[in-house]
# Entry
Amino acid sequence: MLEIFMDFSFQVEHVMSSHGFVFHHGTVTEGTLKCEQVQMSVNEAHRLACARNHTATHLLNAALRKILPYTMQRSSYVGPEHLRLGFSARRILSTEQVKEIESFVKSCIEQKLKVKRLEMPFDALLDNPKAVVLRGEEYPEIVSVIAVECNRTDGELISLEPCCGTHVHNTADLLDFTVIPSKSFGGATKSLSAVTGMQVSIVRRNSEFLEKEIFQLKTEVDETLQKINVPLDAISAHLKKVKSLTKECHLSNDAPLLKLEEYKDILGEMKLKLNDVINSLSKTDANSVCSISDVPVSPSFRTSEEVLNFFHANNTSPTDDEYKYKFNKEGVIPITAGICAVIENDKITDSVECGLRCQLVLDKTNFYAEGDDQTGDEGVISC
# Structure
């Protein structure tokens, strides 16, 4: 262990694990890092956003299996801003299917369902018809599972998945949910992205700006088409704007998907009307019409041998990270931890000066290390 020389503050930017040890990557922002005991403070907003999105991913998976009984999860990503789920499907989901998915997840939020972490033998998990496991994934004999329970007295499960990620304790903690655009993989693998919590309000505000612009254009187009002598220049200008807004809808990834589909339908109707007028005018003045083209529809982490040899030589035990699941009313419970190693440029060091980047390995941690397709925690380590 290292001696305490002076106060310091260490900004944790991301957390990874390797060989059972949890590595806190970040920068010394104050003082000099020469401590034996440190205070661990997790960024609560970041943790809660990831927990919301992880629980929502499980609900999204349950919704998909309800409307596509033979689908299977292929991949997932859980971060503080959004979530993404890759799944097997022959066709892209229809608008009605997306509506059904949103309705299912929002219903779970309104029902305030309990979300529990359980431990059970893997064989017992496989015997449960509600259990979802990934093909090709290796599981231990005893697995940590996340169960979302129905409010009915029969105790039916909405979702049951093996998972070591962080989750909310009740579906009501998700606050809100909406699907956003997502680029699907090729072949039979599709993907869905979504947001939860206050992020839903942000993407809805984004769509409101686009909606205002579209309906303003619709009013202008309707007024132009009511004129007896429609100027070709005005029609061409409107059509150019329609194409621009349609492209914006196709490229947008920060607005509700269902809203964007609605906007594309409105723009499509405007485009048809404007093209009809152009075709009509072209019959009387072929030289005044130019051609209009259609709008296209659209890490692994490993530590160095030197560091591992240091751990073996000092009989360093793997990091105890069970504290990442311990909460009180304020959030993740702060803890005091001992520093086992300070690593700079893949080498063990005694201290790191202010402004330099390094990694900390502690005897215990309340930070969640990146895994189960979930982003690692952020926060501050200090003494």
Notes: The longest helix spans residues 198-225. The longest strand covers residues 8-18.
